[in-house]
Each structure stands twice: as C-alpha cells, then as structure tokens.
Amino acid sequence: MPVEQVTGNSSGLLPFIDEDPTCGPPLEVDPLPRERAEVLARHMKGIADPTRLQILSVLLAAPEGEACVCDMTPLLGLAQPTVSYHMKILVDAGLVSRRKRGTWAWYAVRAEHRAVLDALIWGEGDGDGEVPPEA
Question: What is the pLDDT of residues 47-73, one digit of tens each?
Fold first, then answer.
C-alpha cells in the first residue's frame, strides 16, 4: 500500500508527531541528587557481601557495640587477614569506625548508620530474623 494512502499525505513523507503517544506526560520529579546517590552507592557496595553483612551483625549485636578482629575470626570461621580486609572495606565505605587500643583495632558501626543497618540486617516487623524467600 502506498504511503499516501496510509497517511493521507501526498509528500511521501510520514507526518511529524510531536509527542510519543505511547508515553505519558513528562515526569515532574527531581531525581536523587548526584552527590547523595554517590554516597549511597559507596555504602551499598560496602555491604554488598555476605561476610561484611555477617561482620555488621556481630558489631550490631556486640555488648559494647564494638569488637576486635580477634573476636570476629572464630565467629566467622575466617582467618585474620580476611576479616581485616573486609573491615577495611567497611571503614572505607564510611559505615564502620576504627579505634586503636594498644596493638589492637576495635571496630563499631558508626552511630549515624546504626538504625538503618539494624533494620536492614535484623529486619522490621515480627522480629523473627527470618529472611523472606527469593522471588
């Protein structure tokens, strides 16, 4: 079928459509500011590992709110260098603070992240600690 019959336009060109009929009106929202998105991405990269989530759970549950690598190695079943490596990532991500006491370094979840990490790791709701099945 010739284009002229379909479009009713004898120029042979398809008419210009100003608006995409399949898309709605433009969104009038502001995206997350770039700086905030970069900080959140750094935090999320820091926790995006099963070992680091386990470390955070230990720190959150520690009686004094802090622990030494020597306390965590037997709990996690990992060697000291492996735990120290993960601690460095958590510190660099800004989620955990490091304080030196003598020859040992003690780690704690930074106060400003404690509530969010606590809710993320332990969950909210019935408090049973169960992780929902994958969808």
Answer: 999 999 999 999 999 999 999 999 999
Q: Is 58 helix (H, G, I), strand (E, B) or coil?
A: helix
d(CA 33, CA 131): 31
pTM: 0.72
What are the DSSP calls for the chain, one per residue?
--HHHHHS-TTSSPPP-SS-TTS-SPP--PPPPHHHHHHHHHHHHHH-SHHHHHHHHHHHHSTTSEEEHHHHHHHHT--HHHHHHHHHHHHHTTSEEEEEETTEEEEEE-HHHHHHHHHHHH-SSS---PPPPP-
Judge contact between 36 and 100, C-beta under 8 A. Answer: no
Closest CA to 90 of 64, 124, 66, 125: 66
